[in-house]
Structures are given as C-alpha cells and as structure tokens.
Specification:
Layout (H helix, E strand, L loop, with lengths): L12 H13 L2 H13 L11 H14 L4 H9 L11 H9 L5 H14 L23 H12 L12 H11 L14
C-alpha cells in the first residue's frame, strides 16, 4: 500500500502506520547496504598495505578473537564504511549508519575512533597525537582506547589470518534486523 499525502503536515496516523509497516518489512535492505559499502572498500587502498575491506575484516576478526560482544564486533567491522563516501569525515558517517543498532558507548567509540587512533600517527602530519585526551572523562574512553590500540591500528597486516566477510554476514543481518526504539519511532501494531 502507498500513502497519498503530498505534504507531511497533511498526513494521518493511519498513513504513518502504513509507512512504519512498510519500513519494517524492508528492514533487510539495511544489511544489504552495509554489506555493499563494505564490499566497495576492496577497491580503496589509499597507500595502505591492505585494502580497506581487509582492514575492516581484520579489525572485526581481532575484536571477535579478543572476546568482544556482538555490538563491538559489528561496529569494528563497520567502523570505516564511511570511507566509501568520504575519508575526512568517515568516522561520523560510519557512526551514524550503525547508531540505531548499537548502544551509545559503541556509537561514541566509532564516532571518535580517528582521534584515538591518531595517537599512533597524527604526529606525522603535525597534528596532536594526544587528541584522545579531550575525551578522558567520557565513560567510553577506555573502550575507545581498546578499540583503537588493540584492534584498529593493528589491522593492516596482509598476512593476518582474517575471517571473510561471509563469516560476519549473519551478524550484520542480525544486528540490523530492528532499529532501537530510541532512534526510530515505530507504529503501533
């Protein structure tokens, strides 16, 4: 069914119920889009020793092998998907894409991961390698440091035993099957 309003200020609750039901029915397209963004990163190398898909897969593999929970593994896999669109603001892009599917601290880790990882390279560009210290009092600080130091900055090894995207696909589908209530209002059934 398709609604007929041409302006939102003329819509009805019944029409929004239709839109909500249709959106829920088509929720699987989120996983398809995320997997597509990840696949597109196999062409993005930008001078690194691995392409960005491999980097994302290695980051997620390291997180999984280190005992991270599903939200962190999912976020580790998706942390650089924003590079498919724009490298300079890729953390914000990736964080917003995964936000409806992860808890707030995981969202913040991904949103700020470049400043945490910058400890390992910002000095090469004349930047402040201590940018992470701006977030020292944040409740997610230690988690962001663990992500950056243990999983992300170490994930450029062409010889690492990296799990394939197919291994993570069920997780991507499970994590994106429903959005958190706080992020997307649902129509009442």
């Amino acid at each position: 069914m398709v609604t007929t309003f041409t302006r939102m200020d003329e819509s009805t609750a019944e029409q929004w119920a239709v839109i909500g039901a249709e959106t829920a029915k088509n929720q699987s397209r989120v996983a398809d889009s995320i997997l597509g963004l990840l696949r597109s990163l196999d062409d993005v190398v930008d001078g690194f020793s691995t392409d960005q898909l491999t980097h994302c897969l290695q980051t997620a593999t390291r997180a999984e092998r280190d005992g991270a929970d599903d939200e962190l593994v999912f976020a580790s896999l998706c942390h650089d998907i924003g590079k498919a669109i724009s490298v300079p603001n890729h953390p914000a892009i990736a964080a917003e894409i995964i936000r409806p599917y992860v808890r707030d601290e995981v969202y913040e880790v991904i949103r700020r991961h470049q400043d945490f990882q910058g400890q390992h390279y910002y000095h090469h560009f004349g930047g402040d390698p201590n940018m992470r210290e701006h977030y020292r009092d944040a409740p997610w600080f230690e988690l962001a440091a663990r992500f950056a130091d243990d999983w992300d900055q170490t994930a450029f090894d062409p010889d690492y035993d990296t799990l394939p995207l197919e291994h993570f696909e069920p997780l991507v589908r499970a994590m994106t099957a429903t959005a958190r209530q706080r992020d997307f209002p649902r129509a009442k059934s």
